[in-house]
Amino acid sequence: MENQLVSSQALLFFECIKIGILMGVIYDLLRVTRKIVKHLDLLVHIEDLLYWVGCSILGFSILYMHNYAEIRIFAFLGMILGATLYFLSFSLIFMKIVTQIIEWIRYVLSIVFNILKIPVNWTIQALAIPIGVASDVSEKAQDKTNQEVRKLKRNVTLSGADFKTNIYATKNRKDIND
């Protein structure tokens, strides 16, 4: 009976080591997303809080399933040991590989983007000539219209001035007013 208890506790310890490694992998994935997309400090704090809440739920659920919710210090030590082993060994390799993959994806996307830009630039250049000609014609027509409007305004102002001058002259004529 005692041998079975020890083996179940050893299995729980190894399970906790695996959980610690899993927590390390999840945190590295979180770091990768931070590398890809720059985060505000507040968002980093919220992500870290959610990470630790999730890890706590995961740890206690493992303890609940395997040890009938008996909290043992060796279970937490197993999680810490698993995370420490992961961060000291595989994390460096994992982050280097993922960083290289991200850089390669960015490089490929920049090549694809530059290739897709070529027909767009050709289209813009092909449309620039007719649009430039149409713009010149439109500007000339607008200038001519503006000149005609100015002439009309001048004529209206001058005729109004003549009318006012005639009224003023009529009022001030001595031969009519006497």
Descriptive account of the structure:
The chain has 5 helices and no strands. The chain is an all-alpha fold and 178 residues long. It has a domain at 2-88. The radius of gyration is 41 Å and the shape is elongated.
Structural class, by secondary structure, is mainly alpha
Roughly how much helix do the residues carry, as a percent range? over 70%
Distance between the termini: 142 Å
**Helix segment tally:** 5
How large is the radius of gyration? 41 Å
Low confidence ranges: none
In N-to-C order, the SSE pattern is HHHHH
Number of strands: 0
How does the overall form come out from the CA principal axes? elongated
What fraction strand? under 5%
Mean pLDDT score, rounded?
A: 80
| Main beta-sheet strand count, sense and barrel state | none
Keywords, separated by commas or semicolons:
mainly alpha; 178 residues; 93% helix
Please specify the SSE layout and strand pairing.
Elements: H1 2-36, H2 41-67, H3 73-88, H4 90-172, H5 174-177
Gist?
This protein has 178 residues and is mainly alpha-helical.
